């Protein structure tokens, strides 16, 4: 298990991370979210042992993270971190060696993963000759070449089309089933909702929201109603509990204070003409994020 326990980190007078705590269990995909400058990158660097916390501690399976532990960690950065003049094989041999892997094992794993990601013909191609999407595949392969027990993914789907996103998704889920601890960070909230059962949202270095996604949505309270038909907008917007009414494509999204108002709103809406849909939905994670952080994650 990864434990981040009351960790803080300052850069001079700037508090980058402020008393942050969370844990990630084996097989768990955990969301770490925040806008740029929130402290995510500093947190990642402390987890990998590249920075030392000013206070608090970080442990992996009970051990302090140092160079004897980092071989168990894989990291896919948001920025491209490939050596463009190297071939795919040279790049992976270099990275695998840094993780203490035997050359034959590196090549064996590389051949398996290149075939799995449908780029086996690129083994001896230079990185700079590959498309952005295929470079992202190589970066991901390098991050998991050592079959890490802890994998940190920062915007893993950058530059990928839907087919390749599905490949990444399948591999991430497979690693989770095998027991890897995975920290997932993305600007795409639908991906976070798809993967993460637990998450923490940080702002200016400290947690503003954490827990299970189900409980977070429950505690948020507000609901969304999806209504389709000949809606009396003026009447609907004035009903008790209605926060706002928005038109989206062929239906309306009605934000309400809580599900306590659903029955009374339904009673009034049912009197309107040609109502073909009335559906109660949980708020999106993006909606909750904006409410807690005060700005869009896009």
Please provide a written account of the structure:
- The protein is of the alpha/beta class.
- The chain folds into two domains: 2-217, P-loop containing nucleotide triphosphate hydrolases (Rossmann fold, 3-Layer(aba) Sandwich); 222-282, Alpha-Beta Plaits (2-Layer Sandwich), CATH 3.30.70.
- 33% of the residues lie in helices and 31% in strands.
- It is built from ten helices and 14 strands.
- It has helices spanning 40-47, 88-98, 103-116, 132-144, 162-177, 189-195, 213-220, 233-237, 262-269, 285-293, and strands spanning 2-11, 14-24, 29-33, 55-60, 63-64, 73-76, 150-154, 181-185, 198-203, 206-212, 223-230, 242-248, 251-256, 273-281.
- The strands form three sheets. It has a six-stranded mixed sheet. It has a four-stranded antiparallel sheet with strand order 2-1-4-5, with helices on one face. Strands 12-13-11-14 form a four-stranded antiparallel sheet.
- Helix 2 packs across helix 3.
- The radius of gyration is 23 Å and the shape is globular.
